[in-house]
Amino acid sequence: MTVPSVEFADTKACYLEFEALDWQAHFIESTFYLRDNGTLSAQSKGNFASPYASLRFEYSTDRTEGPPKLRYVPPKPTISPKTRQIFGVIWGVKFKQLPPLPIQQPPMAAIDQINSIHTHCEQHSGELEAIRQALTETCTILMSLTPGNETSHQPTTAQSARTHRRQFKSRMGISPKPFAALNRFQSTLSDISQSNSPLSDIAYEHAFADQAHMSRDFREKTGHSPAQFREIWSESNSVRFLQDHQESPALRLGIVID
Questions:
Q1: DSSP secondary-structure letter at 116?
Q2: Among candidates 33, 59, 3, 22, which has minimal Cα distance to 134?
Q3: In terms of residue numbers, what domain contains 58?
Q4: Does residue 4 have a pLDDT over 80?
Q5: CA dist., res. 179 & res. 164, Å (int)
Q6: Using 50, 70 and 90 to split pLDDT, how confident is the model at 109?
Q7: Structural domain contains residue 204
Q8: Is the pLDDT of residue 181 over 70?
Q9: Is the separation of the CB atoms in 244 and 3 below 8 Å?
Q10: 38 is a domain residue
Q11: Is 16 domain-assigned?
């Protein structure tokens, strides 16, 4: 089901995830926007566990009066699932590695500038492209806080595999193999939900040994087979996946609750 970008602004809750820009892709895995009144996070879908170190700007509106209050959450090298209901908005950035200290602890001037961007977007537009642009500007500010060579990709061919695994886990909180498995599951989930392609083709595209291999992996992580998942989500009248690729081709994943 396709959801025009102008429609989701009036929904109860949404989770949007965007591709990083090409010049940021060596350092930033993706950006995301979550708006919730407790509906989305009250369901099991609301944990939003991520294998990535993520920086978040949280604006809580839970039983408070006046404007939302900003809470800056610096990135940590661990998986950090949400275990509580969320009332408000979260703007976030997922990194491929733990970022340098200037990004982990940006000056107040940078936080104020980012807060202004987010506030302006919330007040003047609820469209996908406006949110995408606000996240892009956020990343630009963060990336400008460090010299270019600090955020460039450093090859590790000279390091032993053991040293690489140890450094990877210390930065990400998870070893390379399960990290890659989570990445594959995320992209598989997106293809199953957003296309009508045969499951055997999707298994092939994501380098599973066969469809049965994909089904076992999928059931282990979701409790459903790929076919069951596709049927449940395609027939739901309350939860939808955004497929607004023409208007926002950088959209990786979107969940909307009416």
A1: H
A2: 33
A3: 8-150
A4: no
A5: 14
A6: very high
A7: no
A8: yes
A9: yes
A10: yes
A11: yes
